[in-house]
Amino acid sequence: MSSTASGGSSATGAERSLGRGAVVGAVAGAVSYVLGYLVVYVTQSGRVEEGLSGINFFADLFGGDTISVWRGVGWVFYNAHFVDVNVPSLIGAARSVNFVAQSDAGLTFLYAVPPLLLVVAGVGIARAAGAATPVDGAQSGALAVVGYLPLAVIGAFLFRYAVGDGGSVAPTLVTAALLAGLVYPVVFGAVGGAAAGATAE
Description:
Blueprint: H1 2-61, H2 69-79, E1 85-87, E2 95-97, H3 99-102, H4 113-129, H5 134-141, H6 145-158, E3 161-163, E4 167-171, H7 173-198
């Protein structure tokens, strides 16, 4: 009886830990996404506004909708996850653009923003879940995906700018979901969680 009770108690404890990790993962993942966007906004909004000024001048001149700075910053934010932005062309097919990669202004540091924030999130999730080994920590840290993935998908739609007859400038949806929303939080959250588990006392 005691063995069964002990096993049941252990299972319940593991379930509680996993549930707590999922809740913390949802919060930490969402916070990482929002903070990442804010870092890009604070550091790049001026440059983005300047880059959009010419386009917005003509859009306003011909009665079109101007491109908001917050939306342009969103494109750069997704580019920092190696997610291209699809840009319609007046002639031929749409082209894929990564403004970070094509910039000569030394913006490559932006590639480090999402991973760093997600590693920190992974540490926090693993600590909250009480992970005591690198494996447990990695499993807990990967739960950052619970909060990061939904926002990555929502953002891909939110940062969409309609152009002409059904065309739009927007992050590539599939890559935004699979790479930015899934791979990034799982991998880097797990790295942070594993580090937390390895250093747990």
